[in-house]
UniProtKB/TrEMBL annotation:
It holds the Pfam family GreA_GreB_N. Belongs to the GreA/GreB family. Transmembrane segments: none annotated. This is Transcription elongation factor GreA. Residues 4-74 form the Transcription elongation factor GreA/GreB N-terminal domain. PROSITE patterns: GREAB_1 (PS00829), GREAB_2 (PS00830). Residues 83-155 form the Transcription elongation factor GreA/GreB C-terminal domain.
């Protein structure tokens, strides 16, 4: 069974979503199915079919979250440090072509959110940055071609 690396924050978010699905969404969809059944003929009942489809999605997501949480390898980034880029590091880089700086935190796949500066450990830029240090230059095979970045800072926030 392959472990899934994630931060404590990411683990809490998945756990909160699971609890919400089980305690709020699941009972609501069961109620919606019961109400739709009261309307009679189920073969032509759009409300019933929509509720059953929603129930299927909820149950699938519950199973997915339970699996991820069971395989989670929670990494406490507050106890990490050093100058080498690893999981949980916040890295500031500069694009050597445009001189534009960007800051990324390397997190688990389910936590990734590029808009808030969190990139997945499996993303091309994160894979290029892992095990590098301040001053190193990395090449990333991006959809728009090869990008070159210099690492300016490695922080543990």
């Amino acid at each position: 069974m392959q472990k899934i690396p994630m931060t404590a924050e990411g683990h809490q978010a998945l756990d909160a979503e699971l609890k919400h699905l089980k305690s709020v969404e699941r009972p609501a969809v069961i109620q919606a199915i019961a109400e739709a059944r009261e309307h009679g003929d189920l073969s032509e009942n759009a409300e019933y079919h929509a509720a059953k489809e929603r129930q299927g999605w909820i149950e699938g997501r519950v199973q997915e979250l339970e699996d991820k949480l069971a395989r989670a390898q929670v990494i406490d980034t507050s106890k990490m440090g050093g100058d080498t880029v690893k999981f949980g590091a916040t890295v500031t880089v500069v694009d050597e072509d445009t001189d534009k700086e960007a800051t990324y935190k390397i997190v688990g796949e389910d936590e990734a959110d590029v808009k808030s500066g969190k990139i997945s450990l499996s993303s091309p830029i994160a894979r290029a940055l892992i095990n590098k240090e301040v001053g190193d230059v990395v090449e990333v095979n991006a959809p728009g071609g090869v990008k070159t970045y210099e690492i300016l800072k490695v922080e543990w926030l």
